[in-house]
Structure formats: C-alpha cells, structure tokens
Amino acid sequence: MRPAAFIGNLWILLFCVLSPSLAGAEDWKLSSSADFDTGNYGTGQRTSTVYVPFTLKRYYTYSTLSVTLPYIRQSSRGLVTWVGGRPARISGASVKTAKGSYASGIGDILAKGTYALETEGQDSFYLALAGTLKLPTADKTMGLGTGEMDEGAGVEFSKDMRRGWTLLADWSLTIIGSPPGQSYSNQVAFDFGFSRKAGRDLWFTMLYETSSALVRGNPDPRDISGMLDYASVAGNHYFGRFLLGLSDGSPDLGISVGVSRRL
Fold it and tell me: What pLDDT was estimated at residue 215?
C-alpha cells in the first residue's frame, strides 16, 4: 500500500470508529462562498478563477467531519491546473481549452475530519489532529484537477490571549497524486496569524500562509489574507476575505464573500 493510501485509509477508519460513539454537541453547518483569484503564477499569462464551494459540516463533542463540493470556472491556457485544492503552475499538460477561453465544471470533492487532542478551560486552548482526502472528481483534461487522489494529515492550534486576541497556527503534510507524465512533490503547508473580536457580532482574522511548491523549480506559494465574519441575529454568518499574494506561486489577488448557517 502506498503511503498516501495508508494515510487516507487510516483517517477513514479513525472517524468511522469514533464518530458514532461521540455523544452530545451534535449539529450541522452549511456554508458556501464565491471566491475570485487572479494571477500569472510565474507563467507570464494571467489566469483568473471563480471557485464556489458548498460545504456540509457535522460537529461532534470532540470532532468534526466535513465534505466540500466545489464548482470551478477558470480561464485556461494549458499552463495552470488545480492541484491540492488551489491553482498551480504545471508543465507538459494537455487541456482542451484554447487560449483566452474558459473551462468550467465540478471540482474535486474534499473530505476533512478533525479530532481534538487537548482543550483548556472554555476552549481557550485547542489542539487537534486533522485529516484530508481529496477525491478526483474534476475533469483533468480541462485543467480543473489532476485526476488523482490526494491525502494528508496535520495539526490545528489556537490559544486565547489577553484582551480578546486569539493566536492561530496550522501545519499539514499532503501526499499529492501524480498523473501519468507529471511529477508533483508532496506538499508541506503552514499558516499562522490571529483573530480578534472587532465588535459585538464581528470578528477579524489575519493569516500568513506558505507551502512548498508542487513542481520542482517553481516558487513556493506565499500569501497574506484578512477576513471579517459577522454573526447576524437570524443565526447566519456572513464573511468576506481579501488575499494578497507574496510570491509567483500564489495568486496576485483574491476576493471572496460567503455565508454559513448552523442547522
């Protein structure tokens, strides 16, 4: 069994065993957003993408499970495809779209689970294991995916600080599936930042994110993002996000707006 299959099967087994036995604090959240990214990713040709994910998330006492089904519309010139959940520069790809045209369709389905290892007080300290499994449902000939499965594992950390500040940090390793004719490197990703309550029902989050390049010789993706999350009296959460790329491995600019609701 290859390492990627081992990690994926381990997480599937873990949550199949644990989830039914976790009593209490059980509910659901449905969320969606419209994300727009644009950049040249070091190719000299601009690629613009609209990414619309629909996510259903289930909460348990110590764990969460979520499934995301996205729709993608992307200007395609055969130089960029979706790998590991984001656009990436590639080489030697064959896509059906011509220069200046668009490719669109269902993206890769992403399943994610977390399990809390440690909590302190009223969620003032949080440390959890996270596992991801990407199912190759996107059309690889249109540059919307690789046609291969990706599997990963990582840790998530948060700590409440003084005066309403919360420190955030995540680390993950993703084993990237390589289609015939391509060779993708496994990806190590890290982000850190903070969140703070900016008003009665308003939260602000800022993150710095970096990851290793998927193709040898390409620049590592690096970006900084800020997000506002507003909780309405009706129970909906409305959020907006702004992203600024710091390297040619990331989009130059990203904007998203979305809504979520606990069911």
Answer: 83
Q: Where are the domains of the chain?
A: 3-262
What is the Cα–Cα distance from 108 to 147, expressed in whole angstroms? Answer: 9
Task: Give the integer Cα–Cα distance in Å for 242 and 62.
Answer: 31
- For residues 259 and 242, what is the distance between their CA atoms, to the nearest angstrom? 15
- Residue 214 tokens read as 């998927």
Instruction: Say yes or no: domain 3-262 is CATH 2.40.160.40.
Output: yes
Let me know: does 260 contact 237? Beta carbons within 8 Å. Answer: yes
8, 15 in Cβ contact below 8 A? Answer: no
What per-residue confidence (pLDDT) applies to 19?
54
DSSP state of 186: P
**Single-letter residue type at 226:** G
Pairwise CA distance, residues 182 & 216, whole Å: 11
